[in-house]
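User: ok so my PI wants both of these folded by tonight, can you help

Assistant: No problem, let's get them done. Here's the first:
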Amino acid sequence: MAEHPLIFARGLVKRFGDFTAVGGIDLDVAPGEAFGFLGPNGAGKSSTMRMIGCVSTPTAGELRILGMDPVRDGAQIRARLGVCPQLDNLDPDLTVRENLTTYARYFGLSRAESRRRADELLEFVQLADRAGGKVEPLSGGMKRRLTIARAMVNDPDIVLLDEPTTGLDPQARHLLWERLFRLKQRGVTLVLTTHYMDEAEQLCDRLVVMDGGRIVAQGSPRALIESYSTPEVLELRFSDGLDSGAGYAAKLDGVGERVDPLPDRVLVYVNNGDVALSEVHRRGLTPSSALVRRSTLEDVFLHLTGRTLVD
């Protein structure tokens, strides 16, 4: 961790009346880092991001962004932030280039500098050939890339990305990941929320898992997997009529460190999947299918936050 983090929070709290959205969290985000927030709906991710973005005042605790107080220095901080909201809010009446040049003018850039920045960013997000066209015909992935380009127009110190690839097809997601990775290579500090575990593994140097307004785990994706899961997971499916995976949980006790019965299969968290599968057969169990895979961040996420749907 850098000696002077760009984002520093201690005991950060956000309440709305009697409801505590963020319940006293500590954060440090270093320059050039890609930092992620994971958590189910209502975990406090968006409330934390809004405080970092200086559009919501903390209820209690200490928060410093770029070494400044967001309550006192909000305007100065916002001038050095780039924001990519969850929903694209591009202006359909302007061309692709005008969406960037007009936005750049809000930051005091000259017309010439605004055009230069716009052309450079459109090239970067691979939209230069669409510069003179309208926004509406663009695909979802193109609009997302344009929104990220707009977030970069003021050459920000920190870019905040709220669910950057939600709703995109796999090809668009991977192209966007590649562009965000390029930004990180340029030394841009990224702070993002995401529901995609593979996205967090791809992009984040470090992340926190939030649940109920608190941080329940933090670290690099690999460190979290090593701390909260096993090296491998054995997925077993049975077709003999026992009620889904629950009927086999007791039969598999002791095969691995943890058994997680699901409606359609059983997950057995193990150090060695092949050895565990041999033990399953030794016990006289005959799964209709068996898959050995490595543990992922999704296994960690579901272990820490549960499988109950939160509205």
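One down. Here's the second:
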Amino acid sequence: MTVEQVERDWFENVMVPCYSPMEMIPVRGVGSTVWDQAGNEYIDFAGGIAVSCLGHCHPVMVNALTEQANQLWHLSNVMTNEPALRLAKRLTQLSFADKVFFANSGAEANEAALKLARRVAAERFGAQKSEIIAFDQGFHGRTFFTVTVGGQAAYSDGFGPKPGDITHLPYNDIEALRAQISPRTCAVMIEPLQGEGGVVPPTEAFIQAVRDLCDEFDALLIFDEVQTGNGRTGAFYAYQNLPVVPDILTTAKSLGGGFPIGAMLTTDPLAQFMKVGTHGSTYGGNPLACAVALAVVNEIAKPDTLAGVKQREAQFREGLLAINQRYPIFSEIRGQGLLLGAVLNDAWQGRARDILVAAGNEGLLVLVAGANVVRFTPSLVISEQEIVQGLACLERAIASLYR
């Protein structure tokens, strides 16, 4: 049977138009290199938006998926399975958590976290304790609840009445938080390093104040580590680089290395409030997903892998600063590990997407974080040579725009 050639214009014909993908279509990937239909080569500094933590087709992932695919694909939450139990046990070993709930995405993990926080507050203190505090420019997913908690109106407006009792405050503003938090607050949800909002790190004083105020007002602290987790910052979870520990943590993206899976992690005292029937997921804890994720987690958790993230961060920073000396367009490089943002200076405001497009034309895949930040979230095991190649592509792209 002849297989019909896929054309890029199919996207406009058959896909809901909520994305604006590049013109090329990737068909194969190895490590941090991908090839399109025409055989053109690209270095991948985007990593599937911080998902492809081991690059493309890493042997430990391929082997785990193949082995599990020949054993058991799906059951349901009517029963448990070995890969799910192994993965849950491993995640508790690597974190503060005692209990794990599996979902299919970061948004679903965050939905579970928010529902747990509301349930705990209602049962412990009463229905009046329902306020959720989150932060401007935060991002927590695309379900109606999580997109409302995320602090970007462009993503949540236009869909009718929003879930209520959600307050947004400026990130890194201790006084604003101190003025708002009260006995009505049930939870504070925060990214320990804002990703979509511009790769913005918290000050140590701010994150400590968030923890202290949550304790003072019996509010739960939820860390959204969907983008920062699983080795992305050089620690297995970003909170491990900070002086505080959350009550609930959410994780996805790099957790499966490209296979869809998310998880909510919490403690024994809080987990007991999610009684049988209060929450669930048909696919959550799927044996295929959990088998792949366990292989990914074990690879990331190796000391050499985590140390390598810091080494690669240093190489990225050095290379970006060198480019900036020749073509000064960045005001600063911020972030941690391999979640880095190159912030455009005043003369280049609003041109992050121009750089993304120009980079693609030069054979490099990058991301943006808003209109003024070029974002890099490559594989955690990207080779030194691939970084060199990618930075050379980036310099050519910037040079073309600079001229």
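DSSP finds 14 helices and 15 strands in the chain. The chain has two domains: 10-57+304-402, 72-300. Good luck tonight!
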